[in-house]
């Protein structure tokens, strides 16, 4: 539980990284560490009842989603820094496309989560399927965004 509280304090205290100094990538390593944080150290895996398993997986999915939001905000800040720098005239268009792709990805993620949930055919485990799929897809998207940062 202490690790959970520490992770959330760290997560919400880091804010937008790239806007404090001229270096657009000054906290890239912190982002990578945050995204690679082992979730099993934060929440005990499992549970004995379906309710406990659903709650546990839902907490993990919420944490992974919060990490994604931090990384996505940082990508925005990096684009803003690069746009201000003016070294490439395509950064503004890339930022606009990033926003569009993120909105499309959210719709795709939600649809795939509903498909995963439907495989339980109304059983009590259906929410576990949903949150597990959401966590997996969100972690993949976070890694995609981190990869984008690394290519700048």
Main sheet: strands, sense, barrel: none
What fraction of residues sit in β-strands?
under 5%
What general form does the structure show?
elongated
Structural class: mainly alpha
Low-confidence stretches: 8-21
Mean pLDDT: 79
Query: What kind of assembly state do the chains in view correspond to?
Result: single chain
Discrete helix count: 5
Produce a short descriptive summary.
This protein has 152 residues and is mainly α. Helix content is 72%, strand content 0%.
Task: Please provide a written account of the structure.
The structure is a single chain. The protein has 152 residues and is mostly helical. It has one domain (2-151). Helices cover 72% and strands 0% of the residues. It is built from five helices and no strands. It is elongated.
Topology:
Layout: H1 2-13, H2 28-35, H3 50-85, H4 91-118, H5 126-151
Helix pairs in contact: 2-5, 3-4, 3-5, 4-5
């Amino acid at each position: 539980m202490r690790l959970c509280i520490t992770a959330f304090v760290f997560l919400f205290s880091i804010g937008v990284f790239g806007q404090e100094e001229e270096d657009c990538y000054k906290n890239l390593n912190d982002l990578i560490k945050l995204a690679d944080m082992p979730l099993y150290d934060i929440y005990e895996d499992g549970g004995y009842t379906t309710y406990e398993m659903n709650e546990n997986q839902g907490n993990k999915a919420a944490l992974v989603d919060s990490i994604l939001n931090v990384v996505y905000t940082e990508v925005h800040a990096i684009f803003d820094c690069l746009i201000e720098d003016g070294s490439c005239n395509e950064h503004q268009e890339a930022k606009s496309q990033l926003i569009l792709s993120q909105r499309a990805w959210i719709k795709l993620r939600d649809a795939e989560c509903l498909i995963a949930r439907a495989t339980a055919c109304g059983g009590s485990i259906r929410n576990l399927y949903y949150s597990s799929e959401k966590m997996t897809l969100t972690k993949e998207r976070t890694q995609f965004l981190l990869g984008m940062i690394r290519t700048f």
